[in-house]
């Protein structure tokens, strides 16, 4: 099970990914808006990549795709498939040295193509910490529509944070020349 883009391969995690996974997820800048605390111990990373590698991407729940650039793990994409098997939530994490080079946009676009065209999902949703403007811009750049803002919604790392809500419908993906207007706020 692979998703290939021009430069990247989205694949299953393997035990060999543990050290690299621990390294980029231990970066405080990478972890800042995420639900884990840095550093990520190698033993914890090894357990995570083993669990990720054994997961079923077609079963409800989270599945993590390893993002591979020429044999190097540069990040991961998470897809939380809903029980109805028609919608999912999306998340992404990339090593700092690979941010700002178009890899995340390319990986997310490739995964959306797979989810909407091959799997025929109806909807993919995403949330971002409102302070994480880079993630919000990425989501909008690849076609997501900002659907809302939940004020002081998530308690994370000792503070309440605002959540930006994004959505992308299969019909909108297939008819990309006619994007939906953003809701007025």
Structure description:
The protein starts with a strand and ends in an 11-residue tail after the last helix. The chain has six helices and eight strands, in the order ββαααβββαβαββα. The protein has an eight-stranded mixed beta sheet, sandwiched between helices. The mean pLDDT is 95. The protein has helices at 18-25, 28-31, 42-54, 103-118, 133-141, 170-174; strands at 3-4, 9-11, 61-69, 72-81, 87-94, 123-129, 145-156, 159-169. By secondary structure, it is of the alpha+beta class. The protein has one domain (3-174): Gcn5-related N-acetyltransferase (GNAT) (Aminopeptidase, 3-Layer(aba) Sandwich). Helix 4 links the parallel strand 5 (87-94) and strand 6.
